[in-house]
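User: Here's a protein and a ligand (zinc ion). What would the complex look like?
Assistant: Let me lay out the input and then the predicted complex.
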Amino acid sequence: MAKKTLSQQQARRIQKKQQDVLDEKNQEQSGIVISQYGQTLEIETHAAEHRRCKQRKNLGPIVPGDRIRFTGEHNDNSVIVAVEPRQSLLARPDNRGRQKAIAANLDRIFIITAIKPELNEGLIDRYLVAAESLDITPIIVLNKIDLANAKTQPILRARMRIYEQLGYTVIYTSARQEHGLDELLDTLKDHASILVGQSGVGKSSLINALLPEVNAEVKEISESTGKGMHTTSASRLYHLPNGGDLIDSPGVREFGLWEVSPEELAEGFIEFRPYLGRCKFNDCQHEGQPGCAIQQAIDEGKISRQRFESYRRILASLAG
Ligand SMILES: Nc1nc2c(ncn2[C@@H]2O[C@H](COP(=O)(O)OP(=O)(O)O)[C@@H](O)[C@H]2O)c(=O)[nH]1
Ligand SMILES: [Mg+2]
Ligand SMILES: [Zn+2]
């Protein structure tokens, strides 16, 4: 059989195609995704210019915080052609239970708590587990410190000490009295962060205090329930005045526990880590089984009972 050879015309066509690919590569620029509205993405170019882009097919979801490469010169011809590998990806189940990407490349999760609605360690522990399972550094914020008085202040500090002793940073703020905001800004500086926490703790108020341009909707706490209402709109990446980025994602702010396995849950209690895998039985449930290393650590005061009880409660809720 005659060997198949390329006609000169075919060869020229292939050469041209290769040249087109090269040209396109040379025209590629890098940018960061600011926001996403359906098929359209708003990106920021290296020159800090904002641009509307389409995305090439098969790139999958592209979300705020994504580092991307794009081609084109203006809003009408710009196309995202590649997404850089992500350091982290925050996702949550949508109403059909499928994982929906929310934000990329976050490296800090600020867990916002308050004095009203009442401080709830169980919720803090859930958020800590979620952050630890994503390998994103959690920071705990106790907001509305203006509501504390000489009597309650030391009690609150003592309750937060358990977290400080675990090595977590705790920041005391008042969005209302603009207290602790400099410390908050310092901790946000040079990081990509998101604020999470129960409805009504003051997330929107803090975002407004940090980023006046955002104008997040502050909801009056309903008198009867002590809780705020939910609002949702698109997530967006903001640059903080002192450096660092804050991704504001109203839908995810109130989001509780990302899906974790029982193993991830135990790993998410960082003080358990040295003892995991050291129980006598491989399948130890840490519920009074003989030779339980976790139980021994509790008895020796190395793991607090409060945290262990919290672990048990979350474990029970996962099974349900
Ligand atoms: N006393 C006090 N109230 C605050 C503070 N921050 C927010 N609030 C109030 O708490 C309520 C809920 O605030 P919001 O920012 O909407 O909470 P979000 O649901 O977490 O976004 C509003 O009535 C705010 O005015 C604070 O530092 N001190
Ligand atoms: Mg809010
Ligand atoms: Zn055990």
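Summary: Residues 203-204, 216, 219 surround magnesium ion (ligand 2) (CB under 6 Å).
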